[in-house]
Every structure is written in C-alpha cells, then in structure tokens.
C-alpha cells in the first residue's frame, strides 16, 4: 500500500459516472485523503507534479478506483475529452475495489 501526501490535490475522474462520485470520495477519505483537496478533473485545467489522480476504472462500468500520482506535465494543444490532460504523465500507485 502506498503512502500518500494528504496535503496534495486529488483530481477526480468519474468518466461521466457522477452516480458513483460519492462512493469514489468515500473510498478516498477512508484512505486518508481530505475531501477539501478533491478537485473535479476538467479538460481545461491539469494538476501539478506530485498531485494525485483518482479515476473510476474501467469505463463505462467501473469496478475499481485507480490512484495515480502526476509525474510530469507538458504543454500540449488540448485534444478531445482528454484536453490538456493529454500532456500529463502519471504513475500508478494503488487500486481500490469499488465493492
């Protein structure tokens, strides 16, 4: 199990499954993250190196939460739904079951 810096922002990717947002947030709080640090991910604004990403995985019917840490942010031209996130590199840290 990874150790997390709970002072960093956590960007939430629900892949359109807002019905699971509360479940996602509750699982992250149980891991020690602060709800005040949760940020809904937008294609027009990315996090910084060291911030976290928590995404419902595998869309469209996720059964887990993938926690990643941002390792690199490159300037890119926004593209499609990914937007500026296209230029963000992340390392997988942990997966949590949604069940």
Q: How would the blueprint of this fold be written?
A:
Layout: E1 10-13, H1 21-30, E2 38-40, E3 52-57, E4 64-73, E5 88-97
Parallel strand pairs: 1-2, 1-3
Antiparallel strand pairs: 3-4, 4-5
Terminal residue distance = 18 Å
The ordered string of helix (H) and strand (E) elements is: EHEEEE
| Uncertain regions spanning at least 5 consecutive residues | none
Largest sheet: 5 strands, mixed
The structural domain count equals: 1
Mean of all residue-level pLDDT scores: 94
Strand order of the largest sheet: 2-1-3-4-5
Overall geometry comes to globular
Helix coverage percent of residues?
A: 10-25%
Radius of gyration: 13 Å
How many distinct helices? 1
User: By helix and strand content, what is the structural category?
Assistant: mainly beta
Strand content: 25-35%
Number of strands: 5
Give your account of this protein's structure.
The protein has 99 residues and is mainly β. Helix content is 10%, strand content 33%. A 5-stranded mixed sheet has the order 2-1-3-4-5, covered by helices on one side.
Give a short synopsis of this structure.
The chain is mainly β and 99 residues long. It has one helix spanning 21-30, and strands at residues 10-13, 38-40, 52-57, 64-73, 88-97.
Based on the model shown, name its key terms.
99 residues, mainly beta, 5-stranded mixed β-sheet, 1 helix, 5 strands, 10% helix, globular
């Amino acid at each position: 199990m990874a150790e997390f810096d709970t002072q960093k922002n956590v960007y939430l990717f629900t892949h359109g499954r807002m019905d699971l947002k509360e479940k996602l947030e509750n699982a992250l709080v149980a891991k020690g993250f602060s709800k005040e640090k949760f940020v809904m991910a937008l294609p027009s604004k990315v996090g910084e190196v060291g911030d976290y990403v928590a995404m419902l995985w595998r869309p469209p019917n996720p059964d887990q939460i993938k926690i990643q840490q941002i390792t690199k942010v490159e300037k890119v031209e926004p593209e499609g739904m990914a937007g500026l996130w296209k230029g963000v590199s992340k390392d997988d840290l942990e997966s949590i079951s949604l069940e």
